[in-house]
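Lab notebook page, bench 4
Experiment: in silico fold of construct C2
Operator: M.H.
Input chain length: 415 residues
Purpose: comparison with the prior construct
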Amino acid sequence: MNIRRSAAALGAVAVLGISAPAVAADSSPSPSGSPALPSGLYGTTDPTYDGVWRQSLALLAQHTAGVRPAAKAVDWLTGQQCANGAFAPFRADTSRACDSKVVIDTNSTAAAVQALAALGGHDATTGKAVSWLKSVQNTDGGWGYTPGGPSDTNSTSVVIGALTAVGEKPEAVRKSGKSPYDALLEFALPCSGDAAGAGAFAYQPDKKGKLAANADATAAGVVAALGQGLAAKAASGDGNGGGARCPDSGKAGPARAAAGGAAYLARAVGKDGYLTSVLPGATDQPDYGNTADAVVALAAQGGAATAQKPLQWLEKHSEAWAKQSGPAAYAQLVFAAHATGTDPHHFGGVDLVERLNATGPAPQAAAAKAKEGATDVAKDDSGHAVWWAAGILLVVVIAVGLMLSRGRGDKVRQP
């Protein structure tokens, strides 16, 4: 679901001669010559490749947790939009119009739409963005990372989430008669065949047209096939198949594809409770971000109970990862908590919302509370000053009274 973990997207971008998005965020300072960090931006790392993405996730996660984001954080995001409605990963100078050198993409645009639609009051911005997304829809019904690029599961999924967020019906958004769901189904592996990859989604077909199971794409595909977005909600009751059954029978469509994808994810996390990274040449490591996305997908398909094992693993092990990776990571964990009905303020002993808020400008409620607190202190100090003044005046009056009384007594005793 997160473009920074999509190897295929990176490859597509590289072919176009564009610098690839960072594979994983880190806490190191921005390299020399990188853009100065705007005060409204969340995170401290170079935003060149993920500024809009991480900002969108941060604002959406805050909204999901009942936090009203800082106005300047929202303004920064809306200010990143190009005149045609699209968003680039980051524009250092928004006073200059977007030209051919500004690389716009579907993922940044769709994520911004989801965040701004949730916050409300940004219909003009989201309307232009959705119009642009529709204008670059591929003839297979899906979207690629860049306009005109081949469709992929992740990009198509995040756009479906954007369409749903603004009240559009994804099945009605068609190009050459094809809807986004038609594109998604082309990336879904059947339940029969390879047992390990049965039911999963591929990112894209390879050069020979073969599909390979991809956990990142599967988590995105499941949520999108259910017509939801980044901040998906859990299925009511037992969901459709409980996330454990890969059905080849029944009507072929998004619902069946979602059930198959969830079954694949359930098998993948069944042993250890987490997904592993698949970087070429590297030793497999726990993939915290993909695991968080899998929690959301499992809960959305089969209910919160189906996601408990990976959720509990995240609660025990994700703190260091989130601290190093920054706002987008905290946001993913907030989404996992939201999808499973877990309190994000008490996630394995960590207050995810507080940690997220600390990576950028203070939310409006927190800022207002701080101002109110300062006012209360001033009022208290003022009140104390009044009482001190009144006390001193009373002492002076009493002293003067005693002196006058004593003076009159001395006069009476004189012969």
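Observations: The two ends are 106 Å apart (CA to CA). The first helix runs from residue 7 to 15.
Next step: discuss at group meeting.
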